[in-house]
Amino acid sequence: MSVPDQSEPSAATPLLAPVEGVPPVLDTAAEISAAAARLVAGTGPLAVDAERASGFRYSARAYLIQLRRAGAGTFLIDPIPVTDALGPLADAINGLEWVLHSADQDLPGLAELGLRPARLFDTELGGRLAGFERVGLAAMVERLLGRALRKGHGAADWSTRPLPAEWLNYAALDVELLLELRDAVAEALDEQGKMDWAAQEFEHIRTLDPPAPKAERWRRTSGIHTLRRTRQLAVVRELWTARDALARARDVAPARILPDAAIIAAATAEPRNIAQLRTLPVFGGPRQRRYSREWLAAIERGRTLPDSDLPPLTQPFDGPPPVNRWERRDPAAAARLTRARAAMGDLSTEHSIPVENLLAPDLVRRLCWDGLPDYAAVEPSAVDGFLKSGGARPWQRELAVARLAAALPPSD
Residue ranges of region Disordered (predicted)? Predict the structure, then answer.
């Protein structure tokens, strides 16, 4: 099976601006309808990208949508003022194949606007399956198309209005070569006999349900591992919940409302009044002083909770425990996981596909922990059924079942 050339390409030709220039931002119903008509008149797949304001806003909504189709050109759409007027655009593009890079990042926000593809091609995921070591958009465009994209504004606050001209240039370039990149990635996949595998993965991403909210998200507060008392965890939980409600209401990223470090400091100090609270880092600042009563009330709720309502020091496991505890809790399971990981590593090398794309690592862990009733006599059909129930695609099971069935039984 051939693998793409991983050597560094010769100097790529810089692409500093769209060939046809940066299009205007469309933000009226009439402009959206006109763009929809032009897109309908175009041909072939549709290049799609979206810019969010991660790190600045609470929501994951799209603040700019970039579209490009052969025969129609490039369009930059501000969806915020025309959220209720995107029907014509949805009618024009929802029946097309969309080409995105890292589609799972943008599809949820676009779906909120009623924009959903009938078919999907993900150039980033396709690059992984084709064995590319670097799968960022700029790296793949440089290697496969010989062009150097101007990058640098992906982490900007795209809720800013008006959007700076330099940002719009960057945004338009994100779809300038996406259709050509799709064809190059498809050619690489075809050459390696992986196109069907990729099609299954693209359809999986396209039809994936939104992830369920993670349980006890407050436990992800940075620095929480330094706390040793359940009462402190209760304070963290109350402060995190108060911050989350405020962030949601204001559509501001939670860390911009109150950084994690301030929550940990308050849980450690447990101030009893506003004066004590304001002596802590951040809480004495001008932006925080107006919320002093809310923060103190949250701290008080955590400080006075009945012991029976205090959170445990460790989060209850939904599935296997952390791998570093397996050897102590179940040495046989730890040995199974070691053998299974080695088998998956061999498959990864043979097919030039990252091991995490061959099979979800969590699914492998669950299989090895308690996924089968009898590990002494493992039936391939049992492994296949477990993987299928866990969402593994047919191509993944075709590759992995026999290897895992051979690796799971005790070796002695």
Answer: 307-327
Partners of 48 in the β-ladder? 67
pTM (2 d.p.): 0.92
Total of domains in the chain: 3
Tokens 């498959």 sit at which residue?
A: 347
Q: Is 412 helix (H, G, I), strand (E, B) or coil?
A: coil
pLDDT per residue over 161-189, tens digit each?
999 999 999 999 999 999 999 999 999 99
pLDDT tens by residue, 331-371: 999 999 999 999 999 999 999 999 999 999 999 999 999 99
Domain containing residue 366: CATH number = 1.10.150.80
Bond from prior residue into 162 cis (ω within 30 degrees of 0):
yes
Q: Is the domain of 115 the same as that of 57?
A: yes
Structure-token pair, residue 249: 């209401």
DSSP states of 160-202: -SSPPHHHHHHHHHHHHSHHHHHHHHHHHHHHTT-HHHHHHHH
Nearest one of 294, 291, 279, 276 to 238, comparing CA atoms:
294
333 and 251 share a domain? Answer: no
Q: Which tokens in the block code for residue 35?
A: 């763009």
